[in-house]
Amino acid sequence: MIKDIQNLILQLKKQKDVCILAHSYMSEDICEIADFTGDSYALSVKAKTAPQSTVIMCGVRFMAETVKLLSPQKTVYLANPTAGCPMAEQMDKELISQVKENYPNYAVVAYINTTTDLKTVCDVCVTSSSALKIIKAMPEKDILFIPDVNLGTYVKNQIPEKNFKLLQGGCPTHAKITREEALKTKNAHPNALFLVHPECRPEVVELADYVGSTSGIMDFAEKSNAKEFIIGTENSIVQHLQFKCPDKLFYPLSKDLVCHNMKATTLVDVLNCLNGVGGEEIVIDEKTRAAAVKCIDKMIEYGG
Ligand code: 13P
Ligand code: SF4
């Protein structure tokens, strides 16, 4: 049954010349039919270069918006319109415009997990895998980092030569994991390396053997000679890694590390979207797009 739907999707996407992008948090059956899977940074770069004129994003809304910002001439769909990122909705343009008045000389650096509207008042965009490189490459010394206080703290600790102002936003899924829970999991698996996403709390990140994006964590685990790993990010990564490396063992940091928004998209959503009976086309007016895309272009420019 799953194979039948996958085959139908593969046929339709070829016929209709559609590119399917899947974030690494998608389930295995969706990753298998995607033209490209990866972390936020890889997907945003891919969005710019994919040759197809129609793109279906399997991920959350800000990711589909990023594709549209970078490729306005393409038709872009979000496979499941209910999939949003709670962190992206936490701060709005009005709030940040007000904060900027108190920090007039600070460059506003926005995590890509933000709305298009908010990006219009930001200077540079970053992802979890590009943040360190990009902020180091920026000429500005004073950085107002939004919205994730945990990613912001991680970056701040790695770049002591710059001044950071952080706001109190973040990912509800990653941020709920406590140091006590992390220590409990580490004690249960004393030989495992601990790989952590920087959206986790600083006191959890502090315990890590490796800190990185979703793709960074997967690459590290695949290349490592170690045999056991605790995965400190969304639990779909535990499953992907277990399929990719059957000779190794992967443990979730917590059974609660589940992003329900990332889980919303199903294989049938992708099929319905291809058949024109599901998904949502992303529409952004040109004035907003032109203002919002500047900070993503800057990220790609500084990121090389
Ligand atoms: P990545 O940048 O690692 O893809 O993370 C995106 C995200 O939403 C993590 O929760
Ligand atoms: Fe947003 Fe967190 Fe889900 Fe990532 S895991 S999409 S940051 S809510």
Concise structural overview:
The protein has 15 helices and 13 strands.
Full CATH superfamily name of the largest domain: NadA-like
The SSE string, one letter per element, is HEHEHEHEHEHEHEHEHHEHEHEHEHEH
Separation, N- and C-terminal Cα atoms: 43 Å
Return the CATH architecture of the largest domain. Answer: 3-Layer(aba) Sandwich
How many individual β-strands?
13
Largest sheet: 5 strands, mixed
Going by helix content, strand content and strand pairing, the class is alpha/beta
What is the CATH level 1 assignment of the largest domain?
A: Alpha Beta
Strand line-up in the sheet with most strands: 2-1-3-4-13
* CATH topology group of the largest domain: Rossmann fold
Total tally of structural domains: 3
Mean pLDDT: 96
What integer value in Å does the Rg equal?
Answer: 19 Å
Q: What small-molecule ligands were found?
A: 1,3-dihydroxyacetonephosphate, iron/sulfur cluster
Q: Approximately how much helix is present in the residues?
A: 40-55%
Number of continuous helical runs: 15
